[in-house]
Structures are given as structure tokens and as C-alpha cells.
Amino acid sequence: MSLTLIADSAACQSIYVQNNGTDYAQAFTSFPGNFDFNAGNELLIQAFANPGYTFLYWEDGNGTQISDNPYVSIYYWSQTLTAVFSGSSPPPVVTTATLTINADNAVIEHVDFVNNAHPNQNQTIYAGSFPALITFNVGDTMTVSAYAIGGYHFSAWVSPDGSFENFYLIGPSVDWSITAEITANPDTWVTLTLAADAGCDHVDVTNETTGVTGTYRNLGMVNANFSHNPGDVIKVQAFPVQGYTFMEWDDANSHLVSASNPYSAAQVNDETLHAVIAIAPQTLTITANFNECDHIDFLNNTTQYQRTITASELPAVISFQAGQSVTLRAWPKTGHNFSQWIITPESG
Fold first, then answer.
1. Do residues 197 and 260 share a domain?
2. What CATH code is carried by the domain that includes residue 72?
3. What is the pLDDT of residue 221?
4. Are residues 109 and 48 in the same domain?
5. How far apart are CA 117 and CA 124, in angstroms?
6. Residue 316: domain span
7. Statement: residue 348 has pLDDT above 50
8. Which residues contact 197 (CB under 8 A, 6 or more apart)?
9. Residue 111: helix, strand or coil by DSSP?
10. Is residue 337 in some structural domain?
């Protein structure tokens, strides 16, 4: 025989069942739960509510309500009991703390603050705004990255617990203060200056010689500097925002450096790399029943590009930029008439 126990896990903390005939007992914290017994055994059943909830009654398989808790009964066959509660969970307790970010306004370029738990709190803090005070929920995970002006480099974050690299921080349970330590570059170092078009989300840089890395955001508004020893192999990779695509890396004079992304090269002198980002091309897939269609004329009204697509080329895929207008004209085979175009958007 089996007693099946049902309860809302949000309301019910646990249900305790004891077989008074055998003294065997079991506590259930997930539901449904099943307690096995022999016919004629006396069972004691008790429900415990979570905070914010109150036990109301038991309801058996026949719909009978039993208010006793604990409830004792002799069972001769399998049965179902449902624990019914009233109330609601108390609102979660949110504890906040503050993070003070300190930096020398004369040599800091900016600091990127990313709250991985609450992206709406992400912000870039520029020189002249330090010390900066940020409020967060205890337990939030945050990434804080500092970037220096040309001729300087970020060395470490100094905090009450010691020094850290540009780092990933699990929200402390108390107010916290960190200071960006910025150091002048050795005279022998060279600098890679990074820039990007507005469609760029961020650029990752890796010194493949030393392992030093950096992530640079907001390059459409401000340049960033990555300094290192001459001859180090530097890898850069641009990440466009949705709807845009990487085109190429250009130098300070807008001359092509590479169309590769990522791009790696040994850097001996000061250099500039500009990530050229463009609106991603859209595609128009044109199809028809080739037994009925002779050909289709395509015209891009914006660029004047035109093409005649024969039935044997269908389906045909044509690229265009968002916002451009196109004209399509289908020519049916003899004995057939054009009816309509059916348009199915594949994305925004």
C-alpha cells in the first residue's frame, strides 16, 4: 500500500509521516511523495508550512477536508492526501552595499563597470568623475576594468584585501573601496591605439607573448591604448553589435591593414588600429515553382543593381542593405498567370 502526498513546494516546507505500527518515519520535502505501509497500519502525518504560509487542511482522494495537523488514521488501502495552505511568500530581503572606485583623474582614461546580475546598471566612468560611488545588491557579480591614458598602463586594483588585476568581483556584503593603480610606461614600450565605428560593442586585445589581455568598450566615442614591449605579438578581435558586421582593420590614415578578425601581428612601433564596422547585409531569398515561372527580374532601386533570375536558378539569394528598396517582377510560363507574392520575414 502507498500513501501519496501532494503539496505546493512554495507553501510546504516538509511533510512528516510516521508508521506507529513499525515506528518507521520519513520526511518529504519534494512532492508528490510516496510512503509505503501495510494494510491496517496507523499513520501519523504532519505538514510544516514555509514562512508566510499557514496550513489549512488535508484533502483526501474523495474531497473530504481534514483539519487535524498532525493527523492520525488507520489505512487499509492506498490513499492520496493533499496539504492545502494559505498565504504567500514574504518578499525577498535585498541588502545593498556601495562600491567606491578611486583613480587618479590625471592619468585614468576610463573605467568600465559591468553588473552581471543587473545589466541596466552598467556604466563607463570617465576621467574627472573619480572617486565614483556605485550601489549594488549584495551577491551581485561585477566586472571592473580600468584603462589608462597614453604613456601609462593599468597595474592593479588595490583593495583592503590586497591587489587584483582587472577583475571579476562577487559583490561583498559590506561597503567596499578599490583604487586603480596606474603606472607610467617604460621608455621602451610601444602603444597600440584602438578605435572603432559606432556599431562595435567591444574589442578584445591579447598580448600573445605575455598573456596580458584587455577588453575595450565605447571605442566609437573614445580611443583606448594598449601598451607593451616592442615585438610582442598582439591579437585584436572586434565584436559588432547585433545588426552590424566587421569589415576590416584600418590604420590611422584609413588604409587597410587586414580583413581578418581576429587579427594577430608583431608590433614593433606605435600603431593605430581602427575597426571598420558596417550595417550587416540582409538577404532576400526568392523562390517560385519552376514549372510555372519562366524568370524573375530583380532591381535594387537604391543601387540600380539588377539581375534576371531564371527558373533553374531558383531559389536565389540576393544581399542588400537594410532600408534599401527593391522591385521584383515574375514572368510566368505560357499557360500560367502570376497570382501573388508571399512575403515571409526571417528577422527584424
1. yes
2. 2.60.40.1140
3. 65
4. no
5. 17
6. 282-332
7. no
8. 220, 274, 275, 276, 277, 278
9. strand
10. no
Domain match, 261 and 215 both? yes
Domain count of the chain? 4
Q: What is the pLDDT of residue 279?
A: 85
At residue 344 the predicted structure's pLDDT band, cuts being 50, 70 and 90, is confident
78 & 100 share domain: no
For residue 166, what pLDDT is reported?
65
52: left (phi over 0), alpha (psi -120 to 50) or beta: left
Three cell numbers written together for 186: 617604460
Residue finishing a domain among 167, 184, 201: 184
The reported pLDDT for the residue numbered 150 is 82
Please state, in angstroms and rounded to a whole number, the distance separating the CA atoms of residues 113 and 110.
10
Burial of 210 (0-12, 13-18, 19+ CB in 10 A): exposed
Tens of pLDDT, residue by residue over 255-311, are: 999 999 999 999 999 999 999 998 888 888 999 888 899 999 999 998 898 999 998
Which of 47, 48, 45 shows the shortest CA–CA distance to 72? 45
**pTM score of the predicted model:** 0.51
Q: Select, from the ranges 24-28, 100-104, 312-316, the one with the highest average predicted confidence (pLDDT).
A: 100-104
Q: What distance in Å separates the CA atoms of residue 175 and residue 136, rounded to the nearest whole number? A: 10
Provide the pLDDT for residue 105.
93
3-state DSSP assignment of residue 177: strand
* pLDDT at position 311: 87
Contact 8, 15 (CB under 8 A): no
Within 8 A by CB and 6+ apart from 262, the residues are 204, 235, 236, 237
Q: In this structure, are 120 and 178 located in the same domain?
A: yes
Residues 34 and 83 in one domain: yes
Residue type, 194: L
Helix (H, G, I), strand (E, B) or coil at 313: helix
